[in-house]
Specification:
By secondary structure, this protein is of the alpha+beta class. The protein contains five helices and ten strands; from the N terminus they run βββαβαβαβαβββαβ. The strands form two sheets. Strands 3-2-6-5-4-8-9 form a seven-stranded mixed sheet. Strands 1-10-7 form a three-stranded antiparallel sheet. The longest helix has 18 residues, at 50-67.
């Protein structure tokens, strides 16, 4: 299992807009049309990564809680499906149904969205405020497959709680760790 850290995009960065296909609804989704009134979580995930498989139950749970509080969630897979066919869009739709995702699961076929976010690994989490300024990026929490630490979502939850309450978000943020994004050959 390769371990790749987030690149930690600069706080305050404005979320690059995108318009790509949602594998669940089969509709084109534009970020600026679905952003949350309080904030937006953008997650780079995929079907096969053991780090994502590990956090899937928690991200589904957090989305159900925080969507009620005005934070939208969007998941994106940018992996090369020729080399990793288990991440293909039709299987992404099945994964979304299996995991009970209540948010779009988008396929970044050109990988341009991942590049615009400087995404490096799966999972990679970004939280933007209502003005689409980056206020948090990094890990869900300290839990990793096999490390024995409970999966709580504490790091991302604390950032979302601070955003909702209008309090300062801790700028000491730990990078996420996961599988590298499977880039297409240039």
């Amino acid at each position: 299992m390769a371990r790749t850290e987030s690149n930690m995009l600069k706080l305050g960065t404005i979320a690059p807009n995108f318009k790509i296909k949602d594998t669940v609804s089969d509709q084109m989704i534009e970020l600026n049309e679905i952003k949350g009134p309080k904030g937006t979580v953008i997650m780079f995930i995929c079907n096969h990564c053991p780090f994502v498989v590990h956090v899937n139950p928690k991200i589904s749970e957090l989305a159900k809680i925080y969507q009620q509080k005005g934070i939208k969630f969007v998941a994106i897979s940018s992996n090369d499906i020729e080399k990793y066919p288990q991440d293909a869009p039709h299987l992404m739709k099945l994964k979304a149904e299996e995991e009970g995702y209540t948010f779009p699961y988008l396929y970044d076929e050109t990988q341009e969205v991942a590049k615009s976010y400087d995404a490096a690994c799966t999972p990679d989490f970004y939280l933007f405020d209502s003005d689409m300024k980056l206020v948090y990026r990094g890990q869900l929490d300290d839990s990793r497959p096999g490390n024995g630490i409970d999966l709580t979502g504490s790091d991302l939850s604390a950032a979302m709680d601070s955003l909702i309450q209008g309090t300062k978000i801790n700028e000491l943020q730990k990078p996420s760790i996961g599988c590298n994004i499977k880039w297409k050959a240039s």
